[in-house]
């Protein structure tokens, strides 16, 4: 058995993540990866962390996706706006929070 996770209204900021999503959408390539998710509160503090083991992109919904994909083909940083991203995975592991950890980066 497996699991699926729906992520809504986000932005893929890193080029490797963007490329992974686009490879599935444009080329039909399903390349599994471990995906780490972090939920933060309104102050940016970590509330919970999960790892989706052996995850793949099942579905992507994004306005003007073709235009965004074209812009992301180069080496320049281009954000990929996501309405909904559905990932499937073999399992979901809850990761421990680091006690007393300080988050310096904002969302």
DSSP summary, beta strand count: 5
List segments where confidence is low: pLDDT < 50 over at least 5 consecutive residues. Answer: 100-107
Q: Count the DSSP helices.
A: 2
Q: Fraction of residues in helices?
A: 10-25%
- Which percent range describes the beta-strand content? over 45%
The SSE string, one letter per element, is EHEEHEE
Rg, alpha carbons: 15 Å
Distance between the termini: 33 Å
Give the biggest sheet.
5 strands, antiparallel
**Bulk shape:** globular
Give the helix/strand class.
alpha+beta
Average pLDDT number: 77
How would you describe this protein?
Strands 1, 2, 3, 4 and 5 form a five-stranded antiparallel β-sheet that branches. This protein is 20% helix and 46% strand. Mean pLDDT is 77; it is low at 100-107. It has helices at 15-27, 65-72, and strands at residues 3-12, 33-40, 46-61, 80-89, 91-95. The chain is built from two helices and five strands. With 107 residues, it is of the alpha+beta class.
Fold topology:
Layout: E1 3-12, H1 15-27, E2 33-40, E3 46-61, H2 65-72, E4 80-89, E5 91-95
Antiparallel strand pairs: 1-4, 2-3, 3-4, 3-5
